[in-house]
UniProtKB/TrEMBL annotation:
It comes from Thermosulfuriphilus ammonigenes. Heterotetramer of two alpha and two beta chains. The record marks 106-107 as: Involved in the stabilization of negative charge on the oxyanion by the formation of the oxyanion hole. One of its GO terms (biological process) is L-arginine biosynthetic process. This is Arginine biosynthesis bifunctional protein ArgJ. It is found in: Cytoplasm. Substrate binds at residues 143, 169, 180, 266, 389, 394. The keyword Glycoprotein does not apply. The active site is at residue 180.
């Protein structure tokens, strides 16, 4: 795995999760980095989100302390104090300003953060920082996930090799408008701070904010980016042609990670792109694709490999957008099953059923009243999703 220059990683078990699983991680840049973040739109925000939003106003960051197994959400003033104290202890051990440290948490909501367990492990976490610790960090941030999610890419910026890497977690409670999903992007590019913020915001809007597993938005969703300039390229901004190269690489990485998150959706067996075209405007296209992607009846039909297009039509009809039923067409990959608002018959449905046996396919919906397009990535809803979430705290 390609690593950006100057980043170190460590992870260990602090006893937050059961069975001595890795549950505490540290990401550290050897020099202060320009930074930006995008956070949950849920009005109930976890303590680490509040702290991170506050500290990222400076657009500077050097370390991120991450725990899994406890969300530190709905924990009152004590939760915010715990986030500040654990961040301060990281800063003390790293000998950096505590304003350059944020925390991030994921796990069960409403249980006090076991800060003493975390603080006791921080010296060991700092002592074990290494370029080789990335895989352990990727594991330590997981909750109900079944696999680690990491992706990296190298690009050339003004004659210098630049690396962008991101690590993420997420499998349930995923319906971002920024869900729990966490993602941490690290790069050694030298980029102007406002351009970094703009790139992050746009890339998130086109990737992580276009996925759904269960329609729930978490209290803890966070996407953070750190750029430490150690590639030593001439500084770029959105005005430079190289900005496009950087942005496209960042969006590609986030797209790969968002696909992994949906693929790892709790109990999921299929990833499905819901693509709406021909909508009146982008807002209506997005509404239509989200309504179909979050429909429980559609998602269970995906699991059953049943091309029940009536459920898709019903979802479109309640999506509060402008439609003309007689103009709608629906295809599963390239198999058209609805034309001009009417079914194409049993033969078409049998072909669509074969498409649905794949672990990835597209449902294409053309409203045929405008030019706007939207894509939302979703998954099927299975017995295992219910089982996993019914047993989450037991």
């Amino acid at each position: 795995m390609d690593l950006p220059k100057g980043f170190l990683f460590s992870a260990l078990s602090a006893g937050i999760k059961k069975e001595s699983r890795l549950d505490l991680a540290l990401i550290y840049s050897e020099v202060p980095a320009r930074a930006a973040g995008v956070f949950t739109t849920n009005k109930i925000k976890a303590a680490p989100v509040i702290l991170a939003e506050e500290r990222l106003l400076s657009n500077k960051l050097q370390a991120i302390l991450i725990n899994s197994g406890n969300a530190n959400a709905c924990t009152g003033e004590e939760g915010l104090i715990a986030a500040r104290e654990t961040a301060a202890y990281v800063a003390k051990n790293l000998r950096i300003s505590e304003n350059l440290v944020i925390t991030s948490s994921t796990g069960v909501i409403g249980i006090p953060l076991p800060k003493d367990k975390i603080i006791n492990k921080i010296p060991f976490l700092v002592a074990s920082l290494s370029p080789d610790g990335l895989s352990q960090v990727a594991e330590a941030i997981l909750t109900t996930d079944t696999f680690k999610k990491v992706y990296a890419k190298r690009i050339n910026i003004k004659g210098k090799e630049v690396t962008i890497l991101a690590v993420a977690k997420g499998a349930g409670m995923i319906a971002p408008n920024m869900a729990t999903m966490l993602a941490f992007a690290l790069t050694d590019i030298n980029i102007e701070k406002e351009s970094l913020k703009e790139a992050l915001k746009k890339a998130v809007s086109q990737t992580f904010n276009r996925i759904t597993v269960d329609g729930d938005t978490s209290t803890n969703d966070s996407v953070i980016i750190m750029a430490n300039s150690l590639a030593k390229n001439e500084m770029i901004s959105y005005k430079d042609k190289e900005y496009k190269i950087f942005y496209e690489a960042l969006e590609e990485i986030f797209d790969k990670l968002s696909f992994m998150i949906v693929k790892d959706g709790e109990g999921a067996t299929k990833v499905v792109d819901i693509i709406v075209t021909g909508a009146k405007d982008e807002v209506q296209a997005l509404k239509a694709s989200k309504t179909v992607a979050n429909s429980l009846l559609v998602k269970t039909a995906l699991f059953g490999e049943d091309p029940n297009w009536g459920r898709i039509m019903a979802a479109l009809g309640r999506s509060d957008i402008q439609i003309d039923p007689s103009r709608i067409s629906i295809s599963f990959d390239d198999i058209e099953i609805v034309s001009q608002g009417k079914g194409c018959g049993e033969k078409a449905e049998k072909k669509a059923h074969l498409v649905m046996k794949k672990d990835y396919f597209k449902i294409k919906i053309n409203l045929n009243i405008g030019k706007a397009v939207s894509l939302i990535r979703t998954c099927d809803l299975t017995y295992d999703y219910v089982k996993i979430n019914a047993e989450y705290r037991t």
